[in-house]
Design a protein that fits this description.
Blueprint (H helix, E strand, L loop, with lengths): L25 H16 L4 E3 L9 E4 L7 E12 L2 E5 L7 E7 L2 E7 L5 E7 L2 H13 L14 E3 L28
Antiparallel strand pairs: 1-2, 2-3, 3-6, 4-5, 5-8, 6-7
Length: about 180
Amino acid sequence: MALREILLADNQILRQKSKKMRGVDSSVQRLIDDMIETMDNAHGVGLAAPQVGQLIRVIVIHIPDEEPIALINPQVVKRAGERILEEGCLSIPGWRGEVKRSVTVTVKALNRDGKEFRIKASEDLLAQALEHEIDHLDGVLYIDHLTAPDKLWKYPPPGEAGGEEDGEAPEPEPVGASQPGL
């Protein structure tokens, strides 16, 4: 396993649509392992292959206190409801925004062994992460879903620990914090 560089929002790769995978081979298995290690090292909840420079439809998600999951060719097959959430992204470090996401999301995908499965998540971090990471596969960033242009801010806010007034660059909170980095 190896850490990979996480591309930042100004990289045009993040705005391109990813290609569907035809199969799961050892190179995909290696990529999945590298992505999980990279995501965990960056204190993230999810990571999409384009974020590490690979324009293929692969995402990984690691919810605190759960096993990491890999989804190949994930596709949202059903969504319901709407909720407003605070969201961040490993490709946009130090920023948070208010976005609209579904309450319930059902996704079909292949697992790391190439077997099809479905996953349903409702009103939790997994539902949010599924939508966020699948968006990456279509060249969409969370900032494209802001509820309003002024609903994007540096994190942590000035005056809080690590904020600009403390003379240090803002750092995202680690996984499990109230505002996860996806």
